[in-house]
Amino acid sequence: MRRRPCQICGSEEVHALDLIRFVKIVGLDMTYSLGQCSHCGFDFAYALADSEQFKGYYTQASKYDFQVEISELESLRSRLALSFLMESGVDPTWRVLDIGCGPGVFLSTLRDAGFANIRGIDPAPKAAISGAKYFNLDCISRGDINSLAALNRVECVSMLAVLEHLPDLKVDFSSLLNRMCKGTYILIEVPALDLFDGKDGEPFGELSIEHINFFSSKSLKNFLESVGCEVLNQKVVALPSLASGSLFMLAVWTGKQKKPSQLRSSNFMGQYLQDCAERWRQAAKLVPNEPFILYGAGSHSARLLAGLSSQARQLIVAVVDSNINLQGKSFGVWTVERPECLGSYPGIPVLISSYRARNAIGSFLKREYPENPTVAMYETN
């Protein structure tokens, strides 16, 4: 693990909060140490995998390579982003670049709203294929922040669900700004730390493998001002299905940097961790004490397996996931198998290790493999 300073003020004085452990996925250890900057109050992973491991994770385990459907949540967040842009006075004639566009959900929302000059970029190898398949988009290319050329023909850059992922947040974002013209607008959306709720939703769900920067309204404004942006508008929108929400900010690149404010430390993250811990303990009690199949190879299962005893791990017969991009790849000491493999394990219990997809998985198992008892870690419909 490499240690990194606060990505807002540069301080190396951090109050440790928790160790977020995962088993290795595709051979990569994405475990990180979570803390709060003692100077400016920013919550972030201060010890984590190096940048090359993050790049390897996104290229080898990206959900966009074989995404089978676009969720209603993704569509809702894109509509909310569009609404925020329009109420902030952004002109549909502007040229917009969507960085970290995935399969193009937001790009398609912009297009349908009359934005004609749009393009996107994403590190996922097959994001462009998904964009063409789902939205008939031909404006997506592969790349990341550091592969972009000068952005002198762009009026607005959008980055939805991007900043929380960046290991070298300040360096990469500053490099991006230096390729922009002064006056370029920047739309940011991140998970709203202000609304993290550990009493509902998925316990520790906001602390996924990819999320390593956690922004409150105050800390995101602090960050943007520290790199030379002026915040023009901001909005926090609740997303009840996640027991969380989205934080939107629109800023303009001025180049006039402000010294990061020394914010009063918030307890958003501390309370979230405390509330999640109890719910996680209750869910973990449902892990079978007999041979079982683990359904799910995402952050939830990676966290679960990291905390299981060696005896409990030995009871796992197979790890199953419908994500084609994970099938055949390593997950801890297991190799992820296709759901169809369940036919080879008649009568063996299946543990549904997922919160968001628990109902869909439960329905699938009941319909296709009724002879396999199911154990859901959370209540299902």
Structural notes for this entry:
The chain is built from ten helices and 18 strands. The protein is an alpha/beta fold and 381 residues long. The protein folds into two domains: 60-263, Vaccinia Virus protein VP39 (Rossmann fold), CATH 3.40.50.150; 286-376, NAD(P)-binding Rossmann-like Domain (Rossmann fold). Strand 3 and strand 4 form a beta hairpin. The longest helix has 17 residues, at 268-284. The chain is globular. It starts with a strand and ends in a 5-residue tail after the last strand.
Tell me briefly what this model is.
The protein has 381 residues and is of the alpha/beta class. The chain has ten helices and 18 strands.
Name its key features:
single chain, 381 residues, alpha/beta, Rossmann fold, seven-stranded mixed sheet, globular
SSE succession: EEEEHHEHEHEEHEEHEEHEHHEEEEHE
- CATH class membership of the largest domain: Alpha Beta
Per the CATH scheme, the topology name of the largest domain is Rossmann fold
What CATH architecture of the largest domain would you give? 3-Layer(aba) Sandwich
Tell me the number of strands: 18
Distinct helical segment count: 10
Tally of structural domains:
2
Widest sheet: strand ordering: 7-6-5-8-9-12-11
The value of Rg in angstroms is 21 Å
What's the end-to-end separation, in Å? Answer: 40 Å
What is the makeup of the main sheet?
7 strands, mixed
Low-pLDDT runs of 5+ residues are none
